[in-house]
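Let us practice reading a record.
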Amino acid sequence: MKKFLLAFAMLIANIVAMAQSQFYVIMKDGSGTSFPESVVDSLTFNDINGAKIYGFKDLANSIAQLRREVDSLKKVMSTISSIDSSEFMHEYVNLGLPSGTLWATCNVGAKKPENFGLYFQWGVTEAGLNFPQQGGKWYSTSVSELRSKGVIDSYLCLTPEYDAASVYWGDDWCMPSKQEMWELVNLCSHKWVEQNGVNGIEFTGSNGNSIFLPCAGFKRGTEGTVLEGTRGYYMSASSGEDTYTAAQIYLSQESVSVGTLNRSYGRVIRPVRRKESHKPYIDTRFPEVNGHVFVDLGLPSKTLWAETNVGASKNSDRGNLFAWGETAPKDSFTEENSKWYGLEKDELVKAGVMDNNYILNLDFDAAYVNWGASWKIPSQADFIELYENCKHETVERDGVTGWLFTGPNKKTLFFPYGYYWENHYGWRDEISNNQEENWGSPVYKGHYVRPILIK
């Protein structure tokens, strides 16, 4: 690093000397000629010979601009010797994970693996010392509002502006998603170890490489650091399902798991390298995407169905009612309060609500908007495949009557009785009285949404 800085300094010194006494013209073929500044009177530009002087049309401006650039570089050089390269150079480890995720060797704000580093609230990029038990910038903010404000993306992960790893370490780094945390916890072996006097968990990948996560505890209220040395709480970029929590890794000598914790608490961050593809990796061994569980019924298309309806807290809840093409739930559904009722199909296509095949576009899909970019409303073909390849029986669950589907692989999925939207214009499925039926419905009507994962 020192050799590089010395060579760079010599280069800048040469540029400074050149700017004070010489004037260079570089041709398109790579040849060039220099003239002492004192002998140059004026320049005439001709596109044929391709002469260019820093984009300016007169000598005085060209030289003035060059000198400004050199002065700027002088200022950089005056401070560069004091920069500690460890502040901006961060190492990572390949653990041989299926997603290819590369994990950093240190926490944000730490210089060694056993250092705790800085503590942050979720979605806040300034490190803090005092963390309220209930409060903070994004505490009690709904997922839909976080998306509308640009705090989280369509996959319900923090955007770079609100990601402390990206802000502190640069765009090549980000906080891990919940799925990436699951990979680390479930596809690596782990053991409780002491490293340089600090307790923590060592994760070892299938390729034998490992990383150490110290038990840094967490910060809450004015208590300072809680459970330091005995517990670890590492923050994820993924929001929790509710308005108060965010995903995290939990570490202790007894267990290691992925769960959620209050957004307002202060936690440490172990970054991962940002991937070229923004779409998160989904490992079906971890049956949850964006905080919502799916079921693999063993269908021929490999379609994965959500375990619950949109707005439902458990499988037996019916959840929220939506009008077709509307993404916010309502209590009443009339022609008057409908966004799209009364418009012709061609008008809806022109407005971008659906495509030329009358299939709902994702920006108007209640599953996609409420659950994130991995989910959508099923098609008619998806429902037909469900009916034709699964056995079903009428059962009662938590006092709610519905159908229990049993897939080819013997896994089951419960649907409360009701009407369910398809993504085709005005089509819905009825599940009731031991019969299924799909037919047209006015788009202003309120029906349930059972999402599927986008392939």
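A brief commentary: Residues 1-20, 46-57 have pLDDT under 50 and may be disordered.
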